[in-house]
Amino acid sequence: MKHLTQHPTLIASAVTAILACSQAMAQDKSEDKEVIGIEVLEVTAQKRVENIQQVPIAISAFSAQNLRKIGANNINDLGNLTPGFETNITSATQPKFDIRGIKTNDFGIGADPAVGIYVDDVYAGRSGSALMNFNDVERVEVLKGPQGTLFGRNTAAGAVRIINKKPIDITEGNYRITLGSHDKKQFEGVYNLPLTDELYFRGSINLSDRDGYVDALRYPDPRKDNTGGEPHKVKLGAENVMSGRAALRWVPSETLELVWRAEFDELDNDARPAYSANSSYYRSQADGGLNPFGVYETDMDTLETRNLFGTSLEINKELDIGTLTSITAYRRFNTENNTEDDGSAQTRGFFGSNNLEDQKYFSQEIRLTGVTDGGTKWTFGTTYANEDIHQITVAEFMMESLDSFAINEQLKALGLPPTGAPQLGVPGIMDMPVGTGLAGYLQSLLPNELAYLSQLAGVSSDELAWRIARDNLGKPWSEVTENFGDYTSYAAFFDVTYPVTEKLDLTVGLRYTKDKKDFGILSRYQNEVTIPLPGVPAMPFGLAFGTEYYQRDANGEAVLDANGNYQPFAQSNTWTKLTPRVVVDYQWTDNLMTYISAASGFKAGGFNSLGAAPPFDQEEVDNIEVGMKSTLFDNRLKLNLSAYDYDYTNLQILRLTGSTGNIPVYNVRNVDAAGKGFELESEWAATDNLVLNFNYAYLDSEYTKYSLFVGETADDDLTGSPLAGVPKNRWYLGADYFIQADNGEWMLHLDITSVDERATASDVNSVRLLPVNPALVPGLTGENRVEGYDLINARVSYRSDDDWQLSFYVRNLADEEYVLSGFGGQGENTGSANLSPGLPRMWGVEFSQSF
């Protein structure tokens, strides 16, 4: 798909177009009629119930019926349908949601997400608890652009709201059974029961299991078996999920409602499949490992698990002046994500990581919402939240892969890939004797020790470094860093919509947020380097995280507790911010509204989870947006447009950077960025039997300021480069056709999503990472680019008048081979930049029944 021409006057042009449309469409004064084939939703994006077409915010909303039609199981499935929302997720416990090009790429707990996920108006906190299966959902709302006023912290890019169904006063239920490819089995059940005239119960359960979808050869794990045995065939990418929800709703009077909710989620998956882009690391593939959609090679048994529990109490009290709402919530989860980061079975590239998190989260929100006699709508509120979180990050290597780590850094400094440049006489990692890089590290980090020991051994320092390196080959190497976080947030906000005239509304909102973070890091050397000299003890040593971090006294000595344990190196900081919004909207007719808004967003600063660097600054965004919402031609056509222009200050980016010596470390840097784009959403009931949907998103983004760390060069400066992982163009076309039968209805659904090529991990230089021309690797189009793709989904359903339904679906009908996350990642450190594939064609049969 071709790029659109850049428009430097995008916002001005959009305003002109919208005003032109407004004048033309204002003539359409058709009376309200029943919508044929078009679903018009009510949403609560502004903390009150409103028709989505009358809310001056760019919102994409999905009802339970719509989610079922497209087969959406969780938020990840909404990315294809939602312009401006990217959900190319490869990890359930570390998902990265992206709205209009903005996301958080830090896997540590020192930073916060940029997209806020809310479940029944409770902030889901860490991303580890955000990606859960839809289970008896009423609707999902995707709010695009900063939502700093009504939702507050960590919604600088936007917010996603999941609203589950409340218990009601009738007995009803439903269930769905799914069987599909890759041995997929799923059961979903819902039951609603009135216990008394005032008390109602609703419960749901979801059980889902699916085998892996990537063929792989698994070699022995070199940490456990260094004999180089034969591989066996496995499937990677299996999933197993069990989740449930229960709710009680008590309505003792017409003015009081209490809703208690509880949910749990247990997940046991394979970690993301990874493919190495370093052809020299493949051991048995005939194509040299250049096909990320072929057979993988692995030497790790990975896993991804989660246990989650959440509960909340919502109280709604009708007062003379308005509705008073209180939401008290507690959530807790623990996760483990043990991942193979190199995507190969080559010992010289071996790199695994394990991320373990344990979080407790408490929040309280109180708000008062009302309408004056003059029609002014207002909301006032306050929130409090506390998060207690512990994270353990483990990096696992072999001594051979640490050797590659060192060689790779030297090649990077020359701007060369892991395979070097044979035409220039520069060998790659696999061309150098094992131990070359490790010996170099020893010489760089321990010059005095080597000088002393070499005199005892009667050899040169260089020779002794070689002997030490060779003596330690074949050993596993593990480094562990612990983080501790105690974060508290306070906020107060108001939002007022004043009717200037019958058609013109002015909305003004403001939120004050105060975030206080107490953070600790603890890391000590867990490994030793043996010295091949009589009587010389092994030497504690560390490479991956650079140094040790723990609390020290004024003399530099470790501070120990009563049991002799080291204490974390502690840091603390507080960030405050006022985030306003101003909106002017004009209701031209009952079916046409335009708006212009200015809003600010904020994400608190934080701490580097893998080092004791000073805190990084808070992230701020200013966004200007214009939009139009319309329902035309007797409500047969819904057409919504929005255009925006944003500027980010201190956008938080995680990157592996050089520090002292030759050892790179992870650091979070603050950069500036800008973006402009527009989005279109439309739905057309072409006939009484045919409904068409078309969505489109365009985004032009770039880094506008990119400060360099010590040891970086001009090649590392990404000023002017596009933001990572975001296509410039994306569109979706869907069609639904209905055929009446004697005892029911046939429903045919077909959709196609087209995604433009995009910058991959643009915080790395692909010239340094790839061993071949990127265009030769399927899924890549060139330096720092991931190939675009087209996905087709189809679904055929028969719905009986007896309240049962049978469906057959196919996702990725054409079996498109595409890359989700581009080259780079942790494996880049050992010369094994890797890719993660998208899902192949999958099909299934569903049977559901309501009663």
Automatic annotation (TrEMBL):
GO terms for cellular component: cell outer membrane. InterPro entries: Beta-barrel_TonB, Beta-barrel_TonB_sf, Plug_dom, TonB-dep_rcpt-like. It is a multi-pass membrane protein. GO terms for biological process: iron ion transport. Residues 52-159 form the TonB-dependent receptor plug domain. Residues 1-26 form the signal peptide. It is found in: Cell outer membrane. SUPFAM superfamilies: Porins. The keyword Phosphoprotein does not apply. Keywords: Cell outer membrane, Ion transport, Iron, Iron transport, Membrane, Signal, TonB box, Transmembrane, Transmembrane beta strand, Transport. Residues 471-813 form the TonB-dependent receptor-like beta-barrel domain. PROSITE patterns: PROKAR_LIPOPROTEIN (PS51257), TONB_DEPENDENT_REC_3 (PS52016). PANTHER family: FERRICHROME IRON RECEPTOR-RELATED, TONB-DEPENDENT OUTER MEMBRANE RECEPTOR. Belongs to the TonB-dependent receptor family. This is TonB-dependent receptor. It comes from Bowmanella pacifica.
